[in-house]
Amino acid sequence: MPTVHLLDYVAGNIRSLVNAINQVGYEVEWIKSPDDVKNAEKLILPGVGHFGHCLSQLNKGGYLEPIRQHIDAGKPFMGICVGLQALFQGSEEDTDVPGLGLIPTRMRQFNDSTKSVPHIGWNSAMNTHFGGSTERSFYGLRPTSKYYYVHSYAALYESGSLESDGWSVATATYGEEEFIGAIARDNIFATQFHPEKSGQAGLRVIRAFLNSDKDHLLSPDMVVGKGEDGLTRRVIACLDVRTNDSGDLVVTKGDQYDVREKSEMDAGGQVRNLGKPVDMAKKYYEQGADEVTFLNITSFRNCPLADTPMLEILRRTSETVFVPLTIGGGIKDAVDTDGTHVSALDVATMYFKSGADKVSIGSDAVFAAEDYYSAGEKLSGQTAIETISNAYGKQAVVVSVDPKRVYVDRPEHTHHHTLKTVHPNAAGQSYCWYQCTVKGGRETRDMDVRQLVQAVEAMGAGEILLNCIDKDGSNSGFDLELINDVKAAIKIPVIASSGAGNPGHFAEVFRKTTTDAALGAGMFHRGEYTVSQVKDYLQADGFLVRQFEA
Ligand code: 1PR
After folding, report:
1. Which residues surround ligand 1 with Cβ inside 6 Å?
2. What is the ipTM of this complex?
3. Mutation to probe ligand 1, out of 249, 257, 456, 466 (largest number of atoms < 8 A from CB)
4. How many of the other CB atoms lie within 10 Å of CB of 263?
Protein backbone atom coordinates (compact mmCIF):
# COMPACT_ATOMS: atom_id res chain seq x y z
CA MET A 1 0.00 0.00 0.00
CA PRO A 2 1.27 3.54 -0.72
CA THR A 3 1.76 5.71 2.33
CA VAL A 4 1.05 9.17 3.62
CA HIS A 5 2.63 10.82 6.65
CA LEU A 6 0.33 12.11 9.33
CA LEU A 7 1.24 14.47 12.09
CA ASP A 8 -0.56 13.72 15.35
CA TYR A 9 0.44 16.55 17.63
CA VAL A 10 -2.75 17.45 19.50
CA ALA A 11 -5.68 15.68 21.01
CA GLY A 12 -8.47 14.86 18.62
CA ASN A 13 -10.19 12.11 16.77
CA ILE A 14 -7.39 11.04 14.49
CA ARG A 15 -8.82 7.55 14.17
CA SER A 16 -11.46 8.60 11.64
CA LEU A 17 -8.82 10.19 9.46
CA VAL A 18 -6.73 7.03 9.55
CA ASN A 19 -9.82 4.97 8.69
CA ALA A 20 -10.63 7.30 5.81
CA ILE A 21 -7.05 7.13 4.48
CA ASN A 22 -7.11 3.32 4.68
CA GLN A 23 -10.49 3.28 2.97
CA VAL A 24 -9.02 5.02 -0.10
CA GLY A 25 -6.10 2.58 -0.26
CA TYR A 26 -3.27 4.29 1.63
CA GLU A 27 -1.44 3.47 4.81
CA VAL A 28 -0.46 5.99 7.48
CA GLU A 29 3.08 6.56 8.68
CA TRP A 30 3.24 8.58 11.85
CA ILE A 31 5.41 11.58 12.32
CA LYS A 32 6.70 11.30 15.84
CA SER A 33 9.48 13.90 15.77
CA PRO A 34 10.39 16.95 13.66
CA ASP A 35 13.11 14.87 11.99
CA ASP A 36 10.49 12.50 10.58
CA VAL A 37 8.99 15.30 8.48
CA LYS A 38 11.81 15.14 5.97
CA ASN A 39 10.98 11.48 5.27
CA ALA A 40 7.49 12.45 4.21
CA GLU A 41 6.60 12.64 0.55
CA LYS A 42 2.94 13.47 1.19
CA LEU A 43 2.11 15.16 4.47
CA ILE A 44 -1.27 15.72 6.16
CA LEU A 45 -1.61 18.22 8.99
CA PRO A 46 -4.91 17.69 10.79
CA GLY A 47 -6.09 19.92 13.59
CA VAL A 48 -9.17 20.57 15.60
CA GLY A 49 -10.06 22.90 18.45
CA HIS A 50 -8.21 26.03 19.47
CA PHE A 51 -5.91 27.77 16.95
CA GLY A 52 -3.51 29.08 19.61
CA HIS A 53 -3.29 25.70 21.33
CA CYS A 54 -2.62 23.81 18.08
CA LEU A 55 -0.07 26.27 16.74
CA SER A 56 1.77 26.53 20.07
CA GLN A 57 1.93 22.74 20.25
CA LEU A 58 3.42 22.64 16.75
CA ASN A 59 5.85 25.36 17.64
CA LYS A 60 6.86 23.81 20.96
CA GLY A 61 7.33 20.43 19.30
CA GLY A 62 9.65 22.02 16.72
CA TYR A 63 7.39 21.13 13.79
CA LEU A 64 6.73 24.50 12.19
CA GLU A 65 10.05 24.90 10.42
CA PRO A 66 10.12 21.33 9.03
CA ILE A 67 6.55 21.81 7.75
CA ARG A 68 7.59 25.05 6.08
CA GLN A 69 10.55 23.27 4.48
CA HIS A 70 8.31 20.45 3.26
CA ILE A 71 6.02 22.98 1.60
CA ASP A 72 8.91 25.01 0.16
CA ALA A 73 10.38 21.82 -1.32
CA GLY A 74 7.21 21.50 -3.40
CA LYS A 75 6.07 18.26 -1.74
CA PRO A 76 2.33 17.57 -1.42
CA PHE A 77 0.83 19.09 1.75
CA MET A 78 -2.73 18.92 3.00
CA GLY A 79 -4.11 20.84 5.98
CA ILE A 80 -7.42 19.98 7.58
CA CYS A 81 -9.49 22.40 9.71
CA VAL A 82 -6.91 24.09 11.99
CA GLY A 83 -4.42 22.62 9.49
CA LEU A 84 -5.92 25.05 6.94
CA GLN A 85 -5.96 27.90 9.44
CA ALA A 86 -2.24 27.32 10.11
CA LEU A 87 -1.48 28.53 6.56
CA PHE A 88 -2.74 32.00 7.45
CA GLN A 89 -0.97 34.80 9.24
CA GLY A 90 -2.92 34.31 12.45
CA SER A 91 -6.33 34.13 14.06
CA GLU A 92 -8.49 36.37 16.21
CA GLU A 93 -8.89 33.29 18.41
CA ASP A 94 -5.39 33.86 19.78
CA THR A 95 -3.65 36.97 18.57
CA ASP A 96 -0.38 36.12 20.34
CA VAL A 97 0.29 33.01 18.27
CA PRO A 98 1.31 33.40 14.62
CA GLY A 99 0.46 30.98 11.82
CA LEU A 100 2.75 29.96 8.97
CA GLY A 101 1.90 33.21 7.19
CA LEU A 102 1.63 31.82 3.66
CA ILE A 103 -1.59 33.76 3.28
CA PRO A 104 -1.38 37.30 4.65
CA THR A 105 -4.80 37.49 6.35
CA ARG A 106 -6.25 36.41 9.70
CA MET A 107 -9.03 34.06 10.71
CA ARG A 108 -12.02 35.89 12.14
CA GLN A 109 -14.84 34.78 14.43
CA PHE A 110 -18.25 34.30 12.82
CA ASN A 111 -20.78 36.95 13.73
CA ASP A 112 -22.83 35.31 16.50
CA SER A 113 -25.46 38.05 16.68
CA THR A 114 -27.18 36.63 13.63
CA LYS A 115 -26.61 32.89 13.94
CA SER A 116 -25.38 30.04 16.12
CA VAL A 117 -21.63 29.78 16.63
CA PRO A 118 -19.82 27.35 16.22
CA HIS A 119 -20.83 26.71 12.62
CA ILE A 120 -21.61 23.00 12.76
CA GLY A 121 -22.91 20.91 9.91
CA TRP A 122 -22.86 20.24 6.20
CA ASN A 123 -22.10 23.09 3.86
CA SER A 124 -20.65 23.64 0.40
CA ALA A 125 -17.16 24.12 -0.99
CA MET A 126 -17.77 25.76 -4.34
CA ASN A 127 -15.00 26.80 -6.64
CA THR A 128 -15.06 30.58 -7.00
CA HIS A 129 -13.91 30.23 -10.61
CA PHE A 130 -16.83 27.98 -11.28
CA GLY A 131 -18.93 28.75 -14.32
CA GLY A 132 -18.20 30.34 -17.66
CA SER A 133 -15.47 28.62 -19.59
CA THR A 134 -13.70 27.29 -16.47
CA GLU A 135 -16.04 24.56 -15.38
CA ARG A 136 -13.26 22.86 -13.54
CA SER A 137 -12.72 22.03 -9.95
CA PHE A 138 -9.81 20.98 -7.78
CA TYR A 139 -9.07 17.92 -5.65
CA GLY A 140 -12.39 16.18 -6.26
CA LEU A 141 -14.57 19.00 -4.93
CA ARG A 142 -18.02 19.11 -6.46
CA PRO A 143 -20.51 21.98 -6.39
CA THR A 144 -23.30 19.49 -5.76
CA SER A 145 -21.63 17.91 -2.71
CA LYS A 146 -21.81 18.92 0.94
CA TYR A 147 -18.98 18.68 3.47
CA TYR A 148 -18.92 18.57 7.27
CA TYR A 149 -17.68 21.72 9.00
CA VAL A 150 -17.22 22.50 12.67
CA HIS A 151 -15.52 25.77 13.61
CA SER A 152 -16.10 29.20 15.13
CA TYR A 153 -13.35 31.05 13.25
CA ALA A 154 -13.05 31.27 9.48
CA ALA A 155 -11.11 32.92 6.69
CA LEU A 156 -13.76 35.33 5.43
CA TYR A 157 -13.70 35.54 1.67
CA GLU A 158 -12.69 38.70 -0.14
CA SER A 159 -13.48 38.37 -3.77
CA GLY A 160 -10.53 37.87 -6.08
CA SER A 161 -7.65 38.72 -3.75
CA LEU A 162 -6.35 35.17 -3.23
CA GLU A 163 -7.11 34.11 -6.78
CA SER A 164 -4.86 36.90 -8.05
CA ASP A 165 -2.05 35.32 -6.00
CA GLY A 166 -2.56 32.03 -7.82
CA TRP A 167 -4.80 30.25 -5.30
CA SER A 168 -7.79 28.17 -6.27
CA VAL A 169 -10.52 28.87 -3.76
CA ALA A 170 -13.77 27.12 -2.85
CA THR A 171 -16.18 28.88 -0.53
CA ALA A 172 -19.25 28.27 1.58
CA THR A 173 -21.80 30.67 3.00
CA TYR A 174 -22.95 30.74 6.60
CA GLY A 175 -25.73 33.24 7.18
CA GLU A 176 -24.52 36.48 5.68
CA GLU A 177 -20.83 35.48 5.71
CA GLU A 178 -18.91 33.82 2.88
CA PHE A 179 -15.78 32.01 3.97
CA ILE A 180 -13.08 29.76 2.58
CA GLY A 181 -13.97 26.07 2.59
CA ALA A 182 -10.95 24.84 0.64
CA ILE A 183 -7.91 26.33 -0.95
CA ALA A 184 -5.11 25.07 -3.20
CA ARG A 185 -1.96 26.30 -4.93
CA ASP A 186 0.81 24.24 -6.47
CA ASN A 187 1.64 21.50 -3.92
CA ILE A 188 -0.62 22.92 -1.16
CA PHE A 189 -4.20 21.89 -0.49
CA ALA A 190 -6.26 22.61 2.60
CA THR A 191 -9.85 22.23 3.73
CA GLN A 192 -11.70 23.98 6.53
CA PHE A 193 -14.17 21.08 6.52
CA HIS A 194 -13.36 17.57 7.73
CA PRO A 195 -13.13 15.33 4.67
CA GLU A 196 -12.84 12.26 6.92
CA LYS A 197 -16.30 13.08 8.29
CA SER A 198 -17.89 14.07 4.99
CA GLY A 199 -19.06 10.72 3.66
CA GLN A 200 -18.15 9.71 0.12
CA ALA A 201 -17.72 13.36 -0.89
CA GLY A 202 -14.94 13.69 1.68
CA LEU A 203 -13.31 10.37 0.81
CA ARG A 204 -13.16 11.55 -2.79
CA VAL A 205 -11.26 14.66 -1.69
CA ILE A 206 -8.75 12.64 0.36
CA ARG A 207 -8.28 10.21 -2.52
CA ALA A 208 -7.71 13.08 -4.97
CA PHE A 209 -5.03 14.59 -2.72
CA LEU A 210 -3.28 11.27 -2.22
CA ASN A 211 -3.39 10.51 -5.95
CA SER A 212 -2.24 14.08 -6.78
CA ASP A 213 -5.41 14.50 -8.84
CA LYS A 214 -5.34 18.28 -8.61
CA ASP A 215 -7.52 19.52 -11.36
CA HIS A 216 -10.52 18.06 -13.11
CA LEU A 217 -13.26 19.00 -15.49
CA LEU A 218 -16.73 18.74 -14.02
CA SER A 219 -19.19 16.56 -15.87
CA PRO A 220 -22.15 18.44 -17.38
CA ASP A 221 -24.65 17.02 -14.84
CA MET A 222 -22.64 18.57 -12.03
CA VAL A 223 -22.52 21.89 -13.78
CA VAL A 224 -26.15 22.08 -14.81
CA GLY A 225 -27.38 20.96 -11.41
CA LYS A 226 -24.92 23.23 -9.60
CA GLY A 227 -25.68 22.82 -5.93
CA GLU A 228 -27.24 25.37 -3.68
CA ASP A 229 -24.84 27.02 -1.25
CA GLY A 230 -25.46 27.19 2.49
CA LEU A 231 -25.75 25.12 5.64
CA THR A 232 -28.11 22.18 5.26
CA ARG A 233 -30.74 21.07 7.77
CA ARG A 234 -29.04 18.48 9.90
CA VAL A 235 -30.87 15.20 10.58
CA ILE A 236 -29.38 13.00 13.30
CA ALA A 237 -30.13 9.38 14.14
CA CYS A 238 -29.83 8.51 17.81
CA LEU A 239 -29.23 5.05 19.19
CA ASP A 240 -29.90 4.47 22.87
CA VAL A 241 -27.73 1.49 23.73
CA ARG A 242 -27.88 -0.67 26.83
CA THR A 243 -27.24 -4.15 28.06
CA ASN A 244 -30.31 -6.34 27.81
CA ASP A 245 -31.25 -9.05 30.27
CA SER A 246 -29.01 -11.55 28.44
CA GLY A 247 -26.00 -9.24 28.78
CA ASP A 248 -25.83 -8.12 25.11
CA LEU A 249 -25.52 -4.49 24.10
CA VAL A 250 -28.61 -3.66 22.07
CA VAL A 251 -30.27 -0.61 20.62
CA THR A 252 -33.34 0.11 22.67
CA LYS A 253 -35.90 2.87 22.87
CA GLY A 254 -38.07 4.09 25.68
CA ASP A 255 -41.42 5.77 26.05
CA GLN A 256 -40.74 8.66 28.36
CA TYR A 257 -37.44 6.90 29.09
CA ASP A 258 -39.02 3.56 30.07
CA VAL A 259 -37.27 1.02 27.84
CA ARG A 260 -39.02 -2.16 29.03
CA GLU A 261 -41.69 -3.87 26.94
CA LYS A 262 -45.20 -3.32 28.27
CA SER A 263 -46.70 -6.77 28.58
CA GLU A 264 -49.82 -7.77 30.49
CA MET A 265 -48.23 -11.10 31.40
CA ASP A 266 -45.09 -9.50 32.69
CA ALA A 267 -45.46 -5.99 34.10
CA GLY A 268 -41.73 -5.33 34.11
CA GLY A 269 -41.09 -6.73 30.58
CA GLN A 270 -37.83 -7.32 28.78
CA VAL A 271 -35.61 -4.47 27.62
CA ARG A 272 -36.85 -3.58 24.14
CA ASN A 273 -34.33 -4.95 21.64
CA LEU A 274 -34.41 -3.06 18.34
CA GLY A 275 -31.17 -4.25 16.80
CA LYS A 276 -27.38 -4.24 16.82
CA PRO A 277 -25.68 -0.86 17.32
CA VAL A 278 -22.94 -1.12 14.65
CA ASP A 279 -25.29 -2.45 11.95
CA MET A 280 -27.92 0.15 12.68
CA ALA A 281 -25.41 3.01 12.65
CA LYS A 282 -24.20 1.86 9.22
CA LYS A 283 -27.75 1.58 7.96
CA TYR A 284 -28.55 5.16 9.01
CA TYR A 285 -25.29 6.43 7.50
CA GLU A 286 -26.27 4.85 4.19
CA GLN A 287 -29.72 6.40 4.45
CA GLY A 288 -28.08 9.82 4.70
CA ALA A 289 -27.96 10.54 8.45
CA ASP A 290 -25.81 13.62 8.95
CA GLU A 291 -24.56 12.36 12.31
CA VAL A 292 -25.00 9.32 14.50
CA THR A 293 -25.33 9.59 18.27
CA PHE A 294 -24.90 6.69 20.67
CA LEU A 295 -26.23 7.12 24.18
CA ASN A 296 -25.06 4.44 26.56
CA ILE A 297 -28.07 4.66 28.80
CA THR A 298 -26.93 2.22 31.49
CA SER A 299 -23.49 3.59 32.11
CA PHE A 300 -24.49 5.85 34.95
CA ARG A 301 -24.59 2.69 36.99
CA ASN A 302 -21.33 1.23 35.73
CA CYS A 303 -17.87 2.59 35.31
CA PRO A 304 -17.48 3.15 31.57
CA LEU A 305 -13.88 1.90 31.70
CA ALA A 306 -15.21 -1.57 32.29
CA ASP A 307 -17.70 -0.89 29.55
CA THR A 308 -15.39 -1.93 26.76
CA PRO A 309 -18.15 -3.10 24.37
CA MET A 310 -19.13 0.55 23.85
CA LEU A 311 -15.55 1.37 22.82
CA GLU A 312 -15.55 -1.56 20.44
CA ILE A 313 -18.85 -0.36 18.98
CA LEU A 314 -17.25 3.01 18.25
CA ARG A 315 -14.11 1.45 16.78
CA ARG A 316 -16.11 -0.75 14.46
CA THR A 317 -18.61 1.95 13.52
CA SER A 318 -15.88 4.46 12.64
CA GLU A 319 -14.43 2.01 10.10
CA THR A 320 -17.45 2.32 7.84
CA VAL A 321 -19.41 5.36 8.97
CA PHE A 322 -17.82 8.60 7.74
CA VAL A 323 -20.03 11.13 9.48
CA PRO A 324 -19.58 12.57 12.99
CA LEU A 325 -20.14 10.17 15.86
CA THR A 326 -21.23 11.31 19.31
CA ILE A 327 -21.09 9.18 22.41
CA GLY A 328 -22.95 9.92 25.63
CA GLY A 329 -23.54 8.21 28.94
CA GLY A 330 -21.14 8.11 31.85
CA ILE A 331 -18.86 10.96 30.78
CA LYS A 332 -17.76 12.03 34.25
CA ASP A 333 -15.01 11.48 36.80
CA ALA A 334 -15.07 7.80 37.60
CA VAL A 335 -13.45 5.17 39.75
CA ASP A 336 -12.26 2.16 37.80
CA THR A 337 -12.89 -1.36 38.94
CA ASP A 338 -9.39 -1.54 40.46
CA GLY A 339 -10.07 1.61 42.48
CA THR A 340 -8.07 4.01 40.28
CA HIS A 341 -9.52 7.47 39.88
CA VAL A 342 -10.12 8.32 36.24
CA SER A 343 -10.94 11.89 35.26
CA ALA A 344 -13.81 12.77 32.91
CA LEU A 345 -11.16 14.01 30.50
CA ASP A 346 -9.50 10.57 30.49
CA VAL A 347 -12.85 8.89 29.97
CA ALA A 348 -13.55 11.22 27.03
CA THR A 349 -10.07 10.58 25.63
CA MET A 350 -10.79 6.86 25.51
CA TYR A 351 -13.88 7.54 23.45
CA PHE A 352 -12.14 10.00 21.12
CA LYS A 353 -9.35 7.50 20.54
CA SER A 354 -11.94 4.89 19.64
CA GLY A 355 -13.51 7.05 16.94
CA ALA A 356 -15.90 9.46 18.66
CA ASP A 357 -15.93 13.08 17.49
CA LYS A 358 -18.01 14.46 20.35
CA VAL A 359 -18.93 13.38 23.83
CA SER A 360 -22.32 14.12 25.29
CA ILE A 361 -22.57 14.90 28.99
CA GLY A 362 -25.86 14.50 30.86
CA SER A 363 -26.12 14.22 34.64
CA ASP A 364 -22.66 15.58 35.32
CA ALA A 365 -23.52 18.81 33.51
CA VAL A 366 -26.45 19.40 35.86
CA PHE A 367 -24.27 18.90 38.94
CA ALA A 368 -21.62 21.20 37.47
CA ALA A 369 -24.24 23.87 36.77
CA GLU A 370 -25.47 23.65 40.36
CA ASP A 371 -21.91 24.26 41.59
CA TYR A 372 -21.51 27.12 39.12
CA TYR A 373 -24.53 28.95 40.53
CA SER A 374 -23.60 28.16 44.16
CA ALA A 375 -20.20 29.74 43.47
CA GLY A 376 -21.85 32.94 42.19
CA GLU A 377 -21.52 32.04 38.50
CA LYS A 378 -17.79 31.42 38.77
CA LEU A 379 -16.06 28.82 36.64
CA SER A 380 -13.97 26.27 38.53
CA GLY A 381 -11.96 25.09 35.53
CA GLN A 382 -12.31 21.56 36.90
CA THR A 383 -15.62 20.38 35.46
CA ALA A 384 -15.87 17.71 32.78
CA ILE A 385 -17.22 20.30 30.35
CA GLU A 386 -14.35 22.72 30.95
CA THR A 387 -11.53 20.19 30.94
CA ILE A 388 -12.74 18.37 27.82
CA SER A 389 -13.60 21.60 26.02
CA ASN A 390 -10.17 23.06 26.80
CA ALA A 391 -8.37 19.97 25.58
CA TYR A 392 -10.43 19.06 22.52
CA GLY A 393 -12.27 22.25 21.63
CA LYS A 394 -15.82 23.21 22.45
CA GLN A 395 -17.17 21.53 19.31
CA ALA A 396 -16.31 18.19 20.95
CA VAL A 397 -18.59 18.77 23.95
CA VAL A 398 -22.35 18.29 23.72
CA VAL A 399 -24.57 18.65 26.75
CA SER A 400 -27.56 16.34 26.72
CA VAL A 401 -30.48 17.84 28.61
CA ASP A 402 -33.39 15.75 29.92
CA PRO A 403 -36.08 18.21 31.03
CA LYS A 404 -39.63 17.54 32.24
CA ARG A 405 -42.54 19.95 32.05
CA VAL A 406 -43.88 21.28 35.39
CA TYR A 407 -47.18 23.19 35.30
CA VAL A 408 -48.01 26.10 37.60
CA ASP A 409 -51.02 28.41 37.92
CA ARG A 410 -49.03 31.62 37.76
CA PRO A 411 -45.38 32.46 36.95
CA GLU A 412 -44.92 33.88 40.47
CA HIS A 413 -45.69 30.44 41.92
CA THR A 414 -42.17 29.33 41.11
CA HIS A 415 -38.75 31.00 41.15
CA HIS A 416 -37.98 29.29 37.84
CA HIS A 417 -38.27 30.72 34.36
CA THR A 418 -41.77 29.93 33.03
CA LEU A 419 -43.46 30.21 29.70
CA LYS A 420 -47.13 30.47 28.78
CA THR A 421 -48.02 27.34 26.91
CA VAL A 422 -50.62 26.73 24.23
CA HIS A 423 -50.97 23.22 25.71
CA PRO A 424 -52.53 23.65 29.18
CA ASN A 425 -52.74 20.52 31.33
CA ALA A 426 -55.90 18.70 32.35
CA ALA A 427 -56.22 20.95 35.39
CA GLY A 428 -56.24 24.00 33.09
CA GLN A 429 -52.82 25.32 34.19
CA SER A 430 -51.25 27.21 31.30
CA TYR A 431 -47.84 28.20 32.66
CA CYS A 432 -44.98 25.77 32.83
CA TRP A 433 -41.29 25.50 33.45
CA TYR A 434 -38.90 22.78 32.41
CA GLN A 435 -37.22 20.98 35.25
CA CYS A 436 -33.81 19.39 34.78
CA THR A 437 -33.38 15.74 35.65
CA VAL A 438 -30.38 13.46 36.13
CA LYS A 439 -29.75 9.73 35.94
CA GLY A 440 -31.91 9.09 32.91
CA GLY A 441 -34.81 11.17 34.18
CA ARG A 442 -35.15 9.27 37.44
CA GLU A 443 -34.22 12.19 39.68
CA THR A 444 -35.39 15.81 39.40
CA ARG A 445 -33.31 18.81 40.47
CA ASP A 446 -34.12 22.36 41.50
CA MET A 447 -32.90 23.82 38.23
CA ASP A 448 -34.70 24.92 35.10
CA VAL A 449 -33.53 24.20 31.59
CA ARG A 450 -32.64 27.83 30.89
CA GLN A 451 -30.36 27.96 33.92
CA LEU A 452 -28.69 24.76 32.80
CA VAL A 453 -28.04 25.71 29.19
CA GLN A 454 -26.72 29.15 30.10
CA ALA A 455 -24.35 27.67 32.68
CA VAL A 456 -22.98 25.02 30.34
CA GLU A 457 -22.55 27.53 27.54
CA ALA A 458 -20.45 29.62 29.93
CA MET A 459 -18.39 26.51 30.77
CA GLY A 460 -17.54 25.90 27.11
CA ALA A 461 -20.10 23.41 25.84
CA GLY A 462 -20.35 23.55 22.05
CA GLU A 463 -23.84 22.23 21.47
CA ILE A 464 -27.03 21.29 23.32
CA LEU A 465 -28.85 18.00 22.71
CA LEU A 466 -32.30 19.03 23.86
CA ASN A 467 -34.45 16.05 24.81
CA CYS A 468 -37.86 16.30 26.44
CA ILE A 469 -39.05 13.50 28.69
CA ASP A 470 -42.74 14.30 28.14
CA LYS A 471 -42.30 13.95 24.38
CA ASP A 472 -39.82 11.04 24.25
CA GLY A 473 -41.21 8.12 22.22
CA SER A 474 -44.59 9.85 21.86
CA ASN A 475 -44.49 10.22 18.03
CA SER A 476 -46.39 13.47 18.56
CA GLY A 477 -43.78 15.93 17.28
CA PHE A 478 -41.07 17.99 18.96
CA ASP A 479 -41.74 20.33 21.88
CA LEU A 480 -41.60 23.57 19.89
CA GLU A 481 -42.12 25.83 22.91
CA LEU A 482 -39.20 24.30 24.77
CA ILE A 483 -36.94 24.52 21.72
CA ASN A 484 -37.73 28.18 21.04
CA ASP A 485 -37.23 29.04 24.69
CA VAL A 486 -33.81 27.38 24.83
CA LYS A 487 -32.72 28.84 21.48
CA ALA A 488 -33.54 32.34 22.74
CA ALA A 489 -31.31 31.83 25.79
CA ILE A 490 -28.01 30.80 24.16
CA LYS A 491 -25.83 31.20 21.07
CA ILE A 492 -24.44 27.68 20.68
CA PRO A 493 -26.30 25.28 18.37
CA VAL A 494 -29.24 23.24 19.60
CA ILE A 495 -30.28 19.76 18.44
CA ALA A 496 -34.02 19.28 18.87
CA SER A 497 -34.85 15.81 20.17
CA SER A 498 -37.79 13.72 21.42
CA GLY A 499 -41.17 13.20 19.81
CA ALA A 500 -40.37 12.79 16.11
CA GLY A 501 -42.96 10.43 14.62
CA ASN A 502 -42.94 11.27 10.91
CA PRO A 503 -41.04 13.40 8.36
CA GLY A 504 -43.55 16.23 8.75
CA HIS A 505 -42.39 16.70 12.35
CA PHE A 506 -38.89 17.52 11.07
CA ALA A 507 -40.28 20.10 8.65
CA GLU A 508 -42.37 21.55 11.46
CA VAL A 509 -39.47 21.94 13.88
CA PHE A 510 -37.28 23.57 11.20
CA ARG A 511 -40.09 25.93 10.17
CA LYS A 512 -41.42 26.91 13.57
CA THR A 513 -38.19 27.11 15.54
CA THR A 514 -34.64 28.19 14.81
CA THR A 515 -33.21 24.83 15.86
CA ASP A 516 -29.89 23.93 14.25
CA ALA A 517 -30.54 20.21 13.90
CA ALA A 518 -33.21 17.63 14.63
CA LEU A 519 -32.85 14.10 15.95
CA GLY A 520 -35.04 11.04 15.65
CA ALA A 521 -34.84 7.61 17.20
CA GLY A 522 -37.92 5.39 17.53
CA MET A 523 -39.46 6.14 14.14
CA PHE A 524 -36.23 5.02 12.46
CA HIS A 525 -35.63 2.00 14.71
CA ARG A 526 -39.14 0.65 14.29
CA GLY A 527 -38.73 0.95 10.50
CA GLU A 528 -41.67 3.36 10.16
CA TYR A 529 -39.58 5.83 8.16
CA THR A 530 -36.03 5.99 6.83
CA VAL A 531 -33.69 8.93 7.20
CA SER A 532 -33.80 9.35 3.42
CA GLN A 533 -37.56 9.72 3.54
CA VAL A 534 -37.12 12.54 6.04
CA LYS A 535 -34.54 14.19 3.77
CA ASP A 536 -36.78 13.81 0.70
CA TYR A 537 -39.70 15.28 2.56
CA LEU A 538 -37.65 18.25 3.75
CA GLN A 539 -36.26 18.83 0.28
CA ALA A 540 -39.72 18.74 -1.30
CA ASP A 541 -40.80 21.24 1.33
CA GLY A 542 -38.10 23.68 0.25
CA PHE A 543 -35.40 22.97 2.84
CA LEU A 544 -31.78 22.55 1.89
CA VAL A 545 -30.60 19.06 2.84
CA ARG A 546 -27.65 16.84 2.07
CA GLN A 547 -28.48 13.62 0.27
CA PHE A 548 -26.35 10.50 0.68
CA GLU A 549 -23.67 10.09 -1.99
CA ALA A 550 -22.90 6.49 -2.86
O1 1PR B 1 -26.23 11.17 32.59
O2 1PR B 1 -24.15 11.66 31.36
O3 1PR B 1 -24.68 9.34 32.03
O4 1PR B 1 -25.92 10.46 30.24
C5 1PR B 1 -26.97 9.57 30.09
C6 1PR B 1 -27.55 9.82 28.72
O7 1PR B 1 -28.47 8.79 28.45
C8 1PR B 1 -28.30 11.14 28.63
O9 1PR B 1 -28.02 11.73 27.38
C10 1PR B 1 -29.77 10.73 28.68
O11 1PR B 1 -30.54 11.56 27.82
C12 1PR B 1 -29.74 9.32 28.14
N13 1PR B 1 -30.73 8.42 28.76
C14 1PR B 1 -30.68 7.94 30.01
N15 1PR B 1 -31.71 7.11 30.21
C16 1PR B 1 -32.43 7.08 29.08
C17 1PR B 1 -33.64 6.29 28.85
O18 1PR B 1 -34.27 6.38 27.79
N19 1PR B 1 -34.05 5.50 29.83
N20 1PR B 1 -32.22 8.12 26.92
C21 1PR B 1 -31.81 7.91 28.16
C22 1PR B 1 -32.47 9.28 26.44
C23 1PR B 1 -33.62 10.23 24.78
C24 1PR B 1 -33.21 10.58 23.44
C25 1PR B 1 -34.10 9.90 22.45
C26 1PR B 1 -34.99 11.01 21.99
C27 1PR B 1 -35.69 10.73 20.72
N28 1PR B 1 -33.00 9.05 25.21
O29 1PR B 1 -31.91 10.36 23.19
O30 1PR B 1 -33.28 9.34 21.51
O31 1PR B 1 -35.94 11.32 23.00
O32 1PR B 1 -36.58 9.67 20.84
P33 1PR B 1 -37.84 9.58 19.88
O34 1PR B 1 -37.43 10.16 18.56
O35 1PR B 1 -38.12 8.12 19.75
O36 1PR B 1 -38.93 10.33 20.55
P37 1PR B 1 -25.22 10.65 31.65
Report:
1. 238, 240, 253-254, 257, 259, 295, 297, 299-300, 328-331, 360-364, 400, 402, 440, 467, 472-473, 497-500, 520-522
2. 0.98
3. 257
4. 10
203 and 246 fall within a common domain: no
User: In the chain, what's the furthest Cα-to-Cα distance?
Assistant: 76
Q: Of the candidates 170, 200, 224, which is a domain's last residue? A: 224
Looking at the structure, do residues 358 and 481 belong to the same domain, yes or no? yes
423 CA distance to ligand 1 middle (Å):
24
- Return the DSSP state at 156: B
Count structural domains, the chain.
2
Distance of CA 423 to the CA centre of its chain: 33
Q: pLDDT tens digits, residue range 466-477?
A: 999 999 999 999
Give me the domain span that covers residue 66.
3-224
- For the stretch 478-499, pLDDT in tens is 999 999 999 999 999 999 999 9
Dist. CA 73–CA 266, nearest whole Å:
72
Residues 161 and 195 reside in one and the same domain? yes
| 108 belongs to a structural domain | yes
Mean pLDDT of 374-383: 98
Instruction: Tell me whether residue 155 is in a domain.
Output: yes
Q: What angle do CA 158, 44, 204 make, to 5 degrees?
A: 75
**CA dist., res. 141 & res. 201, Å (int):** 8
CATH number of the domain to which 496 belongs: 3.20.20.70
